[in-house]
Amino acid sequence: MIIYRDALTESKDELLSDSFKLKEVDGVAYEADCAMIEIGAVEVDTGANASAEEADEGVEDSAQKVNNIIHSFRLQPTSFDKASYLSYLKGYMKKLAKHLKDNGASDEEVKDFQTKAQGFAKKIVSNFKDYEFYTGESMDVDGMVVLLNYREDGVTPYVTVWKHGLEEMKV
């Protein structure tokens, strides 16, 4: 299995894995569909019948529905208004371009990334109100912000991550 970690942070927060079907978008991002799962409650059936005279001693149901990717990678919610997100994104893209260059990408590859990233960022900003924002577990301000949105059906959640901001770790 491959775990995708945040390439720009000291803590190398885990953000995604190949156990989720990744779809490349515009050459700069990955999308992965999520699912809402139930965690916490465990139903135990002892096989005994409750006495007719005794009241049902029901156990409190502490189950909660969570997003499987957000929960699995311990992503932390954060919030932005449009201006602060644009400011974050500008700085993040600069760091990502430097990271690419430092890791052997040619000037043409960096320029191609910047052009494609700018186009994809416009899509995000034009639908800004539809997104929820998450950081890695360490909440490192230099790290990637994972975007959560819903497919056209309004039910299926998916996350979006910047492809070039990930590094692979085989486990």
Structure, briefly:
The protein is built from 3 helices and 11 strands; from the N terminus they run ββββββαβααββββ. With 171 residues, it is an alpha+beta fold. The strands form 3 sheets. Strands 3-4-10-9-8-7 form a 6-stranded antiparallel beta sheet, with no helix packed on it. A 3-stranded antiparallel beta sheet has the order 2-1-11, with no helix packed on it. Strands 5-6 form a two-stranded antiparallel ribbon.
Distance between the termini: 6 Å
- Rg, rounded, reads 20 Å
Question: What is the overall shape?
Answer: globular
Mind summarizing the main beta sheet?
6 strands, antiparallel
User: Order of strands side by side in the largest beta sheet?
Assistant: 3-4-10-9-8-7
Helix content: 25-40%
Helix-strand topology string: EEEEEEHEHHEEEE
* Overall SS class: alpha+beta
DSSP strand tally: 11
